[in-house]
């Protein structure tokens, strides 16, 4: 399913216009019915978890796993809501749903998610990337000032499905002269 989703996301972006609009609209239909359908699917997966103690902490990165755990009677389930577009099928009843941003958190509360079942956690980043962030940034600034002739580095993160391909290709096309002049490094 993920392969099809990724392919369709890229294809709709490439085609653009009404196709991209309709695909985007379809992907934002995670309403209460979507949650019900996912819960029914989770019920079929319950046997996978039944042999585990119900009091162990279970941290999930997909709502289907959290739904399965809740249906199997687990009492300590934390659902990491990895999507930043608030939709019903992303939150799981009877679990603690952790969101990355305040807009998502507030949106879930407005949607009627119980306050004891949703919490703002902030963006999850590996500790190694952020534990020395102040020192690392100061070192980068010092290196840039000490070597003004070295090209600036530009890191371009590309999300999951790669639907930003057209944007990224266009950006690279526009900055290629800076790269050729050794003023910018990708």
Supply database-style keywords.
186 residues, alpha/beta, 4-stranded parallel sheet, two-stranded parallel ribbon, 8 helices, extended
Tell me what you see in this structure.
With about 190 residues, the protein is an alpha/beta fold. The protein is built from 8 helices and 6 strands, in the order αααβαββαβααβαβ. It has helices spanning about 1-15, 15-25, 30-45, 65-70, 100-110, 125-130, 135-145, 165-180; strands at about 60, 75-80, 95-100, 120, 150-155, 185.
Could you name the ranges where pLDDT drops below 50 across 5 or more consecutive residues? none
Task: Please count the helical segments.
Answer: 8
Query: Reading side by side through the largest sheet, how are the strands ordered?
Result: 1-2-3-4
Indicate the proportion of strand residues. 5-15%
Topology:
Elements lengths: L1 H14 L1 H11 L4 H14 L12 E3 L2 H9 L5 E4 L15 E4 L2 H10 L6 E3 L6 H4 L2 H14 L5 E2 L11 H16 L3 E2 L1
Parallel strand pairs: 1-2, 2-3, 3-4, 5-6
Question: TL;DR?
Answer:
The protein is an alpha/beta fold and 186 residues long. Helix content is 49%, strand content 10%. The radius of gyration is 21 Å and the shape is extended.
């Amino acid at each position: 399913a993920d392969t099809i989703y990724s392919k369709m996301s890229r294809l709709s972006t490439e085609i653009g216009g009404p196709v991209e609009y309709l695909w985007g609209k379809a992907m934002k239909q995670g309403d209460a019915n979507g949650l019900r359908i996912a819960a029914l699917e989770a019920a079929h997966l319950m046997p996978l978890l039944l042999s585990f103690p119900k009091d162990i902490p279970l941290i999930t990165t997909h709502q289907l796993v959290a739904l399965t755990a809740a249906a199997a009677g687990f009492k300590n389930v934390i659902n990491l809501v990895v999507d930043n577009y608030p939709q019903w099928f992303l939150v799981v009843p009877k679990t603690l749903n952790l969101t990355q941003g305040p807009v998502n958190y507030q949106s879930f509360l407005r949607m009627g998610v119980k306050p004891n079942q949703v919490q703002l956690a902030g963006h999850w980043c590996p500790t190694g990337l952020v534990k020395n962030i102040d020192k690392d940034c100061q070192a980068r600034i010092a290196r840039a000032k000490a070597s003004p002739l070295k090209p600036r580095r530009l890191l371009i993160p590309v999300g999951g499905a790669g639907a930003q391909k057209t944007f990224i290709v266009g950006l690279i096309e526009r900055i290629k002269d800076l790269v050729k002049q050794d003023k910018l490094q990708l």
